[in-house]
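Q: Could you fold this chain for me?
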Amino acid sequence: MKKAILAAAVLTMVACTDKRTEIELIEAENFSTVIDDIPVTLITLEAGDLVMQVTNYGARVVSLWMPDRNGNYADIEIGYGNIGRYIDNTGERYLGAAVGPYANRIGNGRFTLDGKEYVLPQNNNGHTLHGGTLGIDRIVWRIAHVDQNSITFTCTLPDGQDGFPGNRTIEMRYTLTPDNEFIVTYTATTDAPTVMNLSHHSFFNLKGEGNGTVLDNILTINASRTTPIDEYLIPTGEIASVEGTPFDFRTPRAIGERISDDNVQLRNGNGYDHNWIIDRDNDGEIVKFADLYDPTSGRGIEVWSDQIAMQFYSGNFFDGSYGGKYGKPIGYREALALETQRYPDSPNHENFPSCTLRPDEVYKHTCIYKFYIKRQTK
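A: Sure. Below is the predicted structure, expressed as structure tokens.
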């Protein structure tokens, strides 16, 4: 790695002025290779108080630096320091990646659309996870545009890739803003009826990568219902109220407060690995989904989106057997994901909102991670 000295701009909520700190940027040559005749590269973006590094292999966020309440920077994105580890899948496959063409799970690796059954790779306990064997996280996206604070990726998925129908074209943009927002936007089209559910799979630790548990983080989710799962994490088709359960985050509470309760859904997910149905009045409007706050560092994230649901995963399968960019092991529940989406396994449940995309339609999805900092309360 090389070190770059970056100025930390003053945040309105932080009691510090002109604070400077060292940020360890990953060397671009660590990601320099060619896959399927497309060059792989590493791009650094910067805006506001955020510095982010992104690779076009899987359109992954590799690092994301932000200051704490004292102006000290840390990398809050779980990731690897070279392209080889992503290709060899050493540890968690989906770190920082775009996921799809159908994010989350499809039960038994099959679905029926317009009377025809489609069979997909069963890459997760007999089911299909995040699009199957290849997905969009194991392809090299083409870079259509890049500037100081944004990058636009494109890809074309051929008819039949991982069993999904239609030649599909996806454009995705990552943008950092002066207001410390990380905005992810997707558009997609198809030339034949298909199913589409794209998402972003950053794993965050607001203390910094490898710096401890997320169980003391304070979480709010604006949702009064979930879609319960079976022991394989496949939705049962039920819609359940969060009232009186460990899944009620409508008021702020620590993630670890009830994660060990005797609850069948927590046992099925080995903790939180569930889909929350967001309370909202109108589809298509960008509304606030969630708020995550780490009292140790003062860092926080608001999640906003135009989607209808969000998967919250509490890092239940990290076990410390491998480390991230800085040699620190990623331990049990030391990272989490907040993935805006449609419902998992929607093609197999008539009572779930449709995820069908037809040739005369355009799939659109916006997800905003708005980062903030709070000063220490006395």
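A (continued): The chain has a mean pLDDT of 93.
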